[in-house]
Batch of 4 targets.
Target 1
Amino acid sequence: MKTEKFNQDDAPLHVLLTEWKPEASLPPRFQEQVWRRIERAETALAPTVSLAAVLSNWIANLLPKPALATAYMTVLLIAGASIGWSQARQESHRVSSELGTRYAQSVDPYQLARQP
Amino acid sequence: MKRGLLILALGVVGAVAAFCCVYLMGTTTPRALMRSEQPELAWLKHEFNLGEAEFKRIAELHAGYLPQCEERCRKIEELNGRLSNSLARAAQVTPDIERLLNERAQVRATCQAEMLKHFFEVSRTMPPEQGQRYLAWAQENTCLREQVMSHGQNIQSNHAAPAQHP
């Protein structure tokens, strides 16, 4: 009942509002600016997560999980062994080359004379 | 957190241990070569897969060759000294300088011939296949390798280093 009465009282206003058309135009790039403000507001609200916190969380919660711990250990063991193998190969090659040169120098005195 | 840190530390320790184990295993032979009494001969033994008897014979040949080689080097050094003295006094090529140059060239040629004889002797002591490899190695890595003659031109060769005239 109250609503009906209210509507009857506001009928002229309603007619006026229906007929009314805004004359003012929107400022240039209005829509883009609105989106930018929304974006800025959302960024400001997002909590900042530091690398240390991520790492700490990873160590405390994820690393102890058996699957991840096994994978982590396996990767590190393989990496260590691979680097060791590579270094050993280089060292073997270096020693072999050095001793070959030393043998050549021992039988060929011209080798030493050629050294810079 | 404690458990996570323990796993983290174990991973690092494991990686270091794996590195050390593989590195030490991989360098067993070179370390043994370097520790031997005559590393260069030990290298020869290893490189050309020599047996004990072959290695012993080659070590004897090596020991017999070195004093002769040193004697020839001493002769060349002496001739170098005499030639330097003659050149310091001379204003042109004198018969004495020519004689010294010839004599030095002769000793150098003898030196190279004796070296080649030694290489052949060593190669014959090895199994035939290894002997061939040894000769090829000696030819590539000693003064027996041909030197490209150049008068300053930029000659590039994969097989020899250029000897440039001054």
Target 2
Amino acid sequence: MWALELRQVYKSFGGLLALAGVDLKVSFGERRAVVGPNGAGKSTLFRVAGGEHRPDRGEVLLFGQRVTGLPPHRLAQMGLARTFQVASLFPEKDVLGHVVLAALAFHSLGHRPLPHRLSALEGQVLEVLERVGLSHRARTPVAALSYGEQRLVELAMALAQKPRLLLLDEPLAGLAEEERERVKGILHTLPREMTVLLIEHDLDFAYGFADRVTVLHQGQVLREGLPDEVRRDPQVIQVYVGKDQEADAALPSSSSPRTGPALLEVRGLRAGYGQGEVLRGVDLEVRPGEAVGILGRNGMGKTTLLSAIMGLLPAQGEVRLEGKALPPGALGRAQAGLALVPQGRQPIPGLSVEEELLLALRPGRWTLEAIYELFPRLRERRHAPSTVLSGGEQQMLAIARALLRNPKLLLLDEPTEGLSPLLVKTIREVLRELSRQGESLLLAEQNATFALGLVEKVYILEKGRIVECTEAACLRHEPERLRMWMG
Amino acid sequence: MNRWFPWLLAALALVPLLGGAYALRLGTEVVAWGIAATALAFLYRTTGLVSLGHSAFFGGGAYATALLVKNMGASVYPLAVLLAILLGLAFSLILSFLGLRSHGIFFLMLTLAFSQLVYILVKQGFPGITGGDDGLPGVPRPPGLEEPAVYYLAGLALLLGILLLYRAFIASPLGQVMDALRQNEKRVEVLGYNIRRLKLLASGLSGALAALGGAYLVGYRGFVHPHDLSWTTSGLLLVMAVVGGMRPLSAGVVGATILIALEAFLSSYTDLWNLFLGIFLMAAAWTALRSRGAIHVGA
Amino acid sequence: MEFYLFVLLNGLAYAALLFLLAAGLSLVYGVGRVLHLAHGGFFMLGGYMGYSLYQWTGSFWLALALAPLLALALGLLAERLVRVVYGPERALEQVLFTFGMAFVISDLTRLFWGAQVLGVPPPPALNRPMDLGAVVYPAYPLFLILIGAVVALGLWILMRFTRFGLEVRAAAGHPQMAEALGVPTTQVLQRTYLLGVALAALGGVLAAPRIALAPGLDFTMLILGLIVVVVGGLGSVSGALYGALLVGLADSFGRTFLPQFALAVIFLLMALVLVFRPEGLLGGRR
């Protein structure tokens, strides 16, 4: 019997297959890390295991019992606890209140409608608060806590439930250095009887913490085994860092340094979600006709950066296009000449392929005909609802509609996420062609090799800051340096 | 709010001594409406659900009590009130069962439609039983409580008891869970609580309590009228709860006091009570928005 | 047989009116995520303004043409106010605000037009029976059915084939992405609101010869409109259409066989839909 077992689990959303036949077996007391690039299906896996989604096919077994399709509260009662990537708390309550609620859940006291002395729970609650180091903040309303402390409350709630299986969703995401250390410390002292399933992008920690590692790629288990084995597995490395013999074949032609006024200037950009600050002062520049890459591991802020530049997120700092400050919202920036190919493609429900293209269309070089020539597949599927397209087709659509804006600068957020190698090649060819034709590109990618085969200049984003800016050519010839940043 | 609430209660208690018959009448209305508005606020405070049809329980409780007492004599008052409460509980449970299977907005529409249904059924559906457009006059007072001042003080005691129970409930483990439910439903579920059941419970209690308020009202007033089932009544209850702040225990009573005083004042000047009510509601929305955060325009 | 045809046609005529009311309600929800509880008020206003215009000009057709335009003017003002409560996280504020607006419209209407029941006669051209072979039926409700069909078709064409319709569907489907693609969602919302209000007012004028104009009409119609969108599914015009047909027919047959309980029948229909298919018959989007 396993603590958690997934048998041939399939889950799709609209046309996208997020999990394609996943088998997972976690033993009692095991520490398992689930890793993989963005779009691999890790979050979906968690949600299925947590009862939030019902799998289309396959079974989920918790402690040997079939739980497929049971709602979250039933699973919690069986001994499953979860933390959320973004702290999910009760804004009007204090820290103590949160932990008490968690502890009450399966205590018989939980359903008493009249006041009852909670002395029985007090000990347990105080112990948990000690553990996470929040005893001194017990009476503080959580709205007044720092983001890191809020994440600690999340953790405290999970621990107070005394779970047999703990699902940790990126426990270190968005935390500052000291906070990360604190959380790591707490995680290392978890009782051994507790089975832990962990998603984490901080691969150093994940590999160091886990007994076994499962690597997901495109909704399937790519590799599973001991951390060291998995880490060195060439397939795994390829999936993360990207290794493609053809990368060196056709280098971007322009290698002379670009001069002239910048097309896009970003200075001191700060942005985040809720209390957490993800971008801590980013500076970058894109020159006209240049192809620039932003590299970094997951959770470092690439999507936040592009969203903030596009105006989809409130942000502080300066963003200028052709020297002029951009208006704050996405509409204004779209009208000013920015176009975004968003992460996850984001097709618009209710519209067909051609309708999305027509919606985006602005006068300029790119016309509907030209797009159909570039992406013949879209012509074939032009009357299909955009949401039923395959992942690759949706990606093409996202690029196509951004192009039809005839923008001054094209922003691309992880365009290869979740795509097969063949499609990745196709996309790369398209982007290379665009670059050759003089389009300005700002590309955020975790697949470093893909990006390096495409861009001239690279910024490396680490924990919300640019830590390096170099010619792509340099990085291509120094794989160690790359590995250091990419994991 | 909570600090000077005891003063308000004390002032209300002194009404029989210091005020006249008119003040006593207003005071009784405050108690009746206060109970119903508290029920509405309770529902929102625990589940985040807004009911636009509480008049169905308030007026329905009044009608149920009136019918029983008129036909079987004042001695059956305890039974009548109990029946009113049970009906309020039952229909509230049915409504929430239907309405909670999807978005909260469906609950809202359902409550509105339901109250309209009750209104029409009472007004036109069974005029023989319910008195149709004219309502039911001649409802006797409960035995022992015929004196207006006595009835009023009894009601005040009842209100006080309800508020104390409310406070005790919120302080209890179950109450804490319900309190959290509105703030983050998903989190509560993931912690292991059956949120549907919790919402049903809150809804049932709310309906039952509103019916009690209606029963109290008719016992004093002596008649019940289809207007007690109308959307105006629902709207008035909502304004009361909102003006009182929705979340504090005192919300219903404070709101009822303010609105009834306002209505008494304004009705001598103008006929356009609904207009003021409407403006009140819009202003309350504006204030609620401001207190929540920046006013954000656009999708 | 003739009798049933009669009831059926009545139901369809009523459905046409309900559709005019519900289409706007559904669209405004789809794009702005706000349940416009004042919508019934605009329907009623349309009827009353139609009455006054008829009194003033003596022509039903002029009243029919002008009332929606007047409603548009009022709608411009109303939209600027409602705008502050757009957005999915504002349920309580939306309810308070639009409900409040409904009260304001209700009392102002009573102030201007009084509490007595008012009526408008059908235009002479339509005030006669038509021989349809199987049944003899008055012309005016047939006209209503025709208008309903024309508007439904027009809306369909608008949504499917025009730029505005595309933007409306985009804003309803994914407002953020639509903005990033240059769709001015605030303007789209405004125009959708105005369209909805104009349709409701049109419905009100058309209803005047058939339904008595009296205080309370706004809420009666609002309830029916809500039931229509619950049954048909919130957010789409086709949902409003199917819902209106079902509710209209249920009402007509209900009134015929269980006169006092017509609304109960409709309510039962809504309850059934909520139990078995909570998103509405055509629902299923966000």
Target 3
Amino acid sequence: MSLERPERPESGDLVGVTEDGIDYEALEELLGDLVIGRESHVNAEAFVVRPDEVATALGTLRNEAGFDHLSCVTAQEYEDRFESIYHLRKYDEATHEVGLVVPTSKDDPRSQSGNSVFRTADWHEREAYDLVGIQYDEHPDLRRILLPETWQGHPLGLDYNPEKPQIVTLREHANPLQEDHRRGENSDTMFVNIGPHHPATHGVLHLKTTLDGEQVADVEPDIGYLHRCEEQMCQQSTYRHQIMPYPDRWDYISAGILNEWAYARAAEDMADIEVPEYAQVIRTMSAELCRIAAHLLAVGTFALDVYGDFTAIFMYSTRDREVVQNILEDLTGQRLMFNYLRLGGVAWDLPEPREEFFEKTRDFLDELPGRLEEYHDMITSNEIFQMRCVNTGVLSPEKARSYGATGPVARGSGIDYDLRRDDPYGYYDELDWDVITEDGCDNYSRVLVRMREVEESAKIIEQCVNLLEDWPEEERTIQANVPRTLKPDPDTEIYRSVEAAKGELGIYMRSDGTDKPARFKIRSPCFSNLQTLPEMSEGEYVPDLIASLGSLDIVLGEVDR
Amino acid sequence: MPVDPVVAQTTVETLGSLLGLGELSPLEDFVLSFVVAGGIVTFLLTLVAVSGIWGKRKITAAFTDRIAVNRIGPFGLLIIVADAVRLLSKELIIPEGVDRPAWDIAPFVMVASALLGFAVIPMGSGIQLADPEVGLAYVFAVASIASVGLIMAGYSSNNKYSLLGGLRAVAQNLAYEIPLILTAASVVIFAGTLQMSGIVEAQRAALVDLGGFGIKSWYAFVNPFAFLLFMAANLAEVGRNPFDIPEAPTEIVAGWQTEYSSVYFVLAYLSEFIHIFLGGAIITTIFLGGPTSPIVGLEILPGFVWFVIKILAVYLFTQWMRSAIPRVRIDQLIEIGWKGMLVLSFANLLLTAVIVGLIA
């Protein structure tokens, strides 16, 4: 296993890069014998490779062609085979995408693990094993990840019987209280369960921690406590209306519209729906409002982790977030589960009287710089805070890439990756704003990135408000013509992602000709980001572990789905 | 300016003469001491009830833009009664595997150590249970017993968070007790006595005279550096931000308190607050002139009221810190303690000794 980033050729030397995108023929040539077939997904071409050559293929694509971001691993079962799809793209050029399709037989679903090339494959493949039942050879730790270890069957497999009761005696479960020294009976380390009920785990997260004194010798996140079968529920719902409410429940920290957009974008691209420009502007504005609300809460709770109990910053950020929530409530009628986006547009136009809405939004934007100044006074320029956060929880850019970190976590490690700019959607490429990066790679940088992103979001909202204000009344189309029942062509496959509050939120969908997706896979940014926690906190003190966890800003609803 | 040891009348003697008992027999002395001690403890409990249950919420709320308790009674004051009933009527959960006698004794040790300290504090208006010549040394000695309680609680709870919290508490107390005592010693050099009433007496004279109204020579004015040092060390001693590491709710749940519920929790909580007040009382006595008004000739309020105002001011300060200042990490805390505070407090002690030696 190598975490060393190999010498990356200059982008000009990368195989398969042409003026206007990717030359898949060159890539096929590069992979040579490894390729046994080819598929066309809506987002990119995909190569079918032999199940025992996965690591080689991934390594070749990373080293020779520059595909250094394994954004997602999707597993699914067909009537005649199992399949894992590795969705690859580049941190430097997000529109360059390629898929690796790895089929395996029904009787012995085994394929090689990609863990030796991309560390992020570790958790993604565990999830694939857990839910679909594919075995990955050479995987360091192939256990269930979302479901309990005693679960019987693989729920997203075709022959899974959900009616069968899962009767497991308490005795068969691992006893969380039992002595566990991990490093032998006579070692000096102490095993401690942080969570699932703990004040700082931001939900039901369980960190199996081994402490050496106060220092973290080893930490292993144990997730799945909030698994709600979101993927399966989406697979049982129709494209047109029934899926849209679910995304609100993934990242439920007021990032609802950002999540809805992930689904909307994937489904619209799949069914070739053109969204009216006016609706795109409203989407952009509301999504950025959500981002501000989400980031404010992230900053507030991070302060809580570093400061102690109830502190001024947490309440101040809640107070300011409340204003955003009120604006969103005016717009969508909801404060938490917005369900505002529709395929082909939005649910309804801005609230009447429009002037009042614009004024309210503008008032908020006018007050925001002063508020942020206050936060900077209390958080980022506080010396004790800096003492706690600078150079703790360090995540090097190489590791961040290998673990598939995205969003503020990647940008805090100096990776200039933001899908709003790199893979433009909505109205973002028409607007004037910047992608924020910080080079500190530590907890402090990640918080700073969030605070500065709030300013950028405010810039975007302001421009959107100006646009919306002057929009001619007769051109205010909020919804494209979309058939009542949406039935994409059979075997259409798509992986599309948007920049959600926590990073790259991607959706993979495969249609089978009906009005419901045959496979619906969510690529959660928090899931990948959380995987970096052990890298950040091993060798550091318990308080830094907590601070690092806070700076990752995970939402367990999205990690566990 | 050393002063002669004052032979002040303690409250017990005052009470005795009020009852016309004259010279007290040991039995009478014991009974009357009991009465006065009961009075002091009752006062402290009231203070904790008001400031701990109600005041703390209101103060934190004011800092964090909230309203806090306002439903039960005027200004939500009856929450004190409601909370008392709630806390006392909860089930006392005794976890499996706790080390029984130690686990049960620990909260009492902590409360007792804090309460014992008040025995020698001059509270003004003649209230002082005892006034031994080694008053200051006695206060620090008994207050330190709390560390024993902390480690008992941490070790006997059979909980890893409690253990971590207990160890942190002891490490912190060790690191900060020394600067605390050394800084207090610099006051002793000024006052020339360990007796509490003597230290108060030494601060009575005017430092600066402003046309009849003199600002008194409180040691906080005479040696502000020592005062700041003591305040900071005291924050660590009582475990409030930036030094609330023994509890650190976001890190180790509640530290050594984790397994305590119901009455034991009340006791643990009580000991925390009484320790804050004891810290306030020590600061009041050795730096803020005890139960006296800050200006000569302005003795309008009775001494006891001044005393309460001053300890509440120190309490307010700890709550302010709690709302506004981040927590340092355990290694940083120890570093600040041993490398910073200790050196500074030695420097302060030396300088004070030299200055006092030169002047006197």
Target 4
Amino acid sequence: MSGGSVTPVGGSRLKWAFADAMVITRRNLLRFIRIPALFVFSVVQPLMFVLLFRYVFGGNLVPIPGVNYVNFLLPGIFVQTAIFGSTNTGIGLAEDLGSGIIDRFRSLPMARSGVLAGRTFADLGRNLVVVGLMIAVGYLVGFSFQAGPFNALAAVGLSLAVGYSFSWVSASIGLAIKDTESVQAASFTWIFPLTFMSSALVPVTGMPKVLQAVARNNPVTIWANTVRYLTIGRVYDPVHHVSILPAPGDTPASLVVKSSLWILALLLVFIPVSVRTYRKVA
Amino acid sequence: MSAGAARLPAVDSPIIRTEQLVKHFGAVQALKGVDLEVAAGSVFGLLGPNGAGKTTAVRILTTLIEPTGGRAEVAGFDVVKDAEKLRGQIGLAGQFAAVEQHLTGLENLEMVGRLYHLGKAEARRRATEVLDRFGLSEAANRPARTYSGGMKRRLDLGASLVGRPRVLFLDEPTTGLDPRSRLGLWEMIRELQSEGITLLLTTQYLEEADTLADKIAVIDLGTVIAHGTSDELKDQIGGEVLELRVADRSQMGHAMTTLAGVGGTPVIDEVAGSFKIPVGVQGASLLSEVVRRLDDAGVKLADLALHRPTLDDVFLSLTGHTAEEETGEGAAQGRGRRKRKKEGAA
């Protein structure tokens, strides 16, 4: 009569937690594939940014000596796209709360971590697809990785890690607000200033002094510049004060360290916040 | 040792037991000390209007939320301390079919099977079995969003059975279903009981509790106000009920004064223009007197009936309102569920 379900013990607990997360990841990815509108629009938006900035702003507005603007732009787009894509985590969780499926998951003998892990893994996979497409489009409009395959992989990996850490920020917001439309609206109020007040799309040197101070310390600037460094493998023309090193004394190595620390900090703060909110959210 | 042995659960000990269960949501008291006992293998009906606390009770018993006070045990496991073990023993199907719209019926059930930690093959075997049983085999490979309301509900119920639970919780299983689907679901509930599964179902339909449940607890404003078998509950308000409907509503007051002292306290239904008087066992002998008095007073009747009380009457006499009326604490049931409520009502 009793269910043949396995109660995880000891070391197998971690194994089951991972297996549960994979089941939920698969479910979320299937959703992503089977809702064509969701797929199309998550690709169209970053594509629009690439084409608009590449051809409308072109390089006329933001001449960067010694650097082809498209090679400046695309690394910023990767980071921006990953952060934008992370808003899906919160929206998806709010949707699941509303549909009652989270109640079902919570009544099952699965690991409690499964829903959040599965959601963020799926959005990581989704970001991988979208960033991959951006690279393909980038190559069509003149972009190229110039520092070898290892650095290219590191550039993509860093962009995705940024997206993953923001998935947890988004999860915290989604679980706290719970209403799908409000989550969507709330996400864009912080995501636009965060990504635009940075060097993601234009060099900070063209900004007013006050804004420059903000932009130089914005982690998005640090990430975008690190991805740039990994893309072209050098620091820009110092004579024209157009450097990818945001602060004096920065080196490429310190940039990589700072990037990683920011990601780690976000994860350390927002994973516990999300998990706690998820526990209380019933 | 012998004292300890005396406390050991006997064979007929309850499979669900709650003691003074309390739940607060902020200032709202959703449950104010609920005691329940459900015998293994029975169907237990938790009956009450919206906002009575039924859903809150189910959510505590299925480990979705923790009680503010009191304790509860299901299948021998404490809902707080042994929550993890308990989840392997229970199934939950809700008011709002919690299936993944964009997965097929088969994928939905397989997913649940995997989350019960069944192997791939076993998860598929059980999923197929459940689909077959609920007449969904032909729709197995269609996305659930293409299913009708009744099919979705069956899939949802099916999902709660994949883990072969000992205790099944059904939160308003037939709300929003058409009469045919409702009858079909009733049939399934009886079948599950015959297989030895204990079922706790919540409902606001008295007829449903009357038909399905071995034992019923009537819950209102977070308190159990009566419990027993359907017959016991009907007996509680004392034998028969005299139901009168006046032809002219303006004569309601007049009719009631005329009949003062006949039977128990009348319950008035303003909308229908009728009132009910519990009359105990001597209903028939009172009938002629009632007719004579009203005739003398010049009150014209549209309808007069003497019947054994329905659960509706029980509810009315216990709470002073009908089961369908929304009570003031409707919000108590579920924060964040409002959106689903709207969908359910649509």
